Amino acid sequence: MLVGVALKRAPRVSGVDVADPERGSLAELEELAQSAGAEVVGNILQRRDAIEPATLVGRGKLEEIKVEARMRQAPLIIFDRNLSPVQQRNIEQVTECRVIDRTQLILDIFARHARSREGQLQVELAQLNYLLPRLTGRGVELSRLGGGIGTRGPGEQKLETDRRRIRDRVRKIRQSIETIRRQRGLRRRARQAVPLGTVTLVGYTNTGKSTLFNALTRAGVYTSRQMFATLDPTVRAVRLPSKRKVLLSDTVGFIRDLPPDLVVAFRATLEEVQESAVIIHVSDISSPQHEEQDAEVEKILRDLGVSDRPRLHVFNKIDLLPPDHVEMLHNHNGNVFVSAQRGTGLDALLERIDQVLPVDRTVQLSLRVPLADGRTLALLRARGRVISSEVRDSHLWVEAEVPESLARKIRLGHLHAAE
Questions:
Q1: Plot region of 384 (φ>0 → left; ψ -120 to 50 → alpha; else → beta)
Q2: Superfamily the domain 194-356 falls into
Q3: Rounded to two decimals, what is the model's pTM?
Q4: Which of 13, 110, 175, 295 is the most exposed place for a label (fewest CB within 10 A)?
């Protein structure tokens, strides 16, 4: 059973009807629950003037939730808000069902999808920080953990230990993550020694970032319609139309009210965004809530301090729009419209990246190259664009556009630049 609570005085977001569970936050909660492997049998939405401190919803609504859960044989109730430890215990006592909140559900999904050692450590850290204040008075409930949604992660034995041992585990995980962060920083500095710009894909979860990443790089990264299918960042090289090479990075998707502990735990991953030369904001243009989702992404980018970074807004999944809507789309204000699934608009996207990338810009050179120097000629054609060439005095006089880094190498090679 899903339960949503909306405040009557809360401002409504343009294009989103919070009272409609099919289009509002309950629809997103249902996607999250399904991504965690749940079968949703029903939902309840209550609009209130204020939150009830002890039970979130009123006593009468709790009884209604209890009856609905029994009728539908639902052993688990998921709330679309973050519950305090007291609220969670009180709701469980009244409904006689296991209760989890939105944060615990997201943590469960992250635990399912974490594949690398780094991702698993980050998820475990966030889970332990979430569970630590909930240990008091929950010995019976915790002894039942071990299977099902909201119970995946650190495991029964760790959860039944005392606070001191859990804090020790948290400290060790943080040390391990810090080591990984330093190693990632060393790799990043090694990449920065070579003049390659990093372009990072960001966006709301399930907007098709990994599909777009695969379409541009042929990397074969795991993709799924489930939310948060990508947790571990992946970096691959991409050649732009100017022949410049860039590093494209795929990152974890954002979501509204992302748990703070999760943001802190994934700091090493989010540093990829902070070090990017260009940020590509990917939106699902087929989603009725894409404006609200874009606003959440903008908020997180501001929190990361990268809102002023060169950015492209890419609207994905145009193949899911009606044909008459697609015909009305055109590039405006720097936006690009693509279908990563079908490969539509990818050339235009690469051209736009080429235009806004501030790293290793292309420069025009006039060179006098010996005809016997086949290596330099091949390099010019492979990594640049030859505008014109003419044979004079046993030399080839070439006009070419090449990346600035290649121009420096050619000059250091003691080639004679034409005056």
A1: beta
A2: P-loop containing nucleotide triphosphate hydrolases (3.40.50.300)
A3: 0.73
A4: 175
Per-position pLDDT tens, the chain of length 419: 999 988 876 554 444 444 453 446 888 899 899 988 899 999 999 888 889 999 999 889 999 999 999 999 999 999 999 899 899 999 999 999 999 999 899 888 888 877 778 778 888 888 888 888 877 545 444 444 445 666 555 555 545 556 778 888 889 998 998 888 788 777 766 665 555 788 999 999 889 998 999 999 987 665 666 666 566 678 888 988 888 888 898 887 888 877 676 676 666 567 778 878 899 999 999 988 889 899 989 988 888 888 888 899 999 999 998 877 776 766 556 689 999 999 999 999 999 998 888 876 777 778 888 877 777 777 777 777 788 888 887 788 888 877 777 777 776 664 444 43
Domain 2-100 has CATH 2.40.50.140: no
The CATH number of the structural domain formed by 362-417 is 3.30.70
Domain extents for the chain?
Answer: 2-100, 114-175, 194-356, 362-417
Task: Detail the DSSP E strand segments found in 242-330.
Answer: 245-250, 278-284, 311-316
Beta strands in 187-285 (DSSP E): 198-203, 234-239, 245-250, 278-284
The neighbouring-strand residues paired with 400 are 365, 386
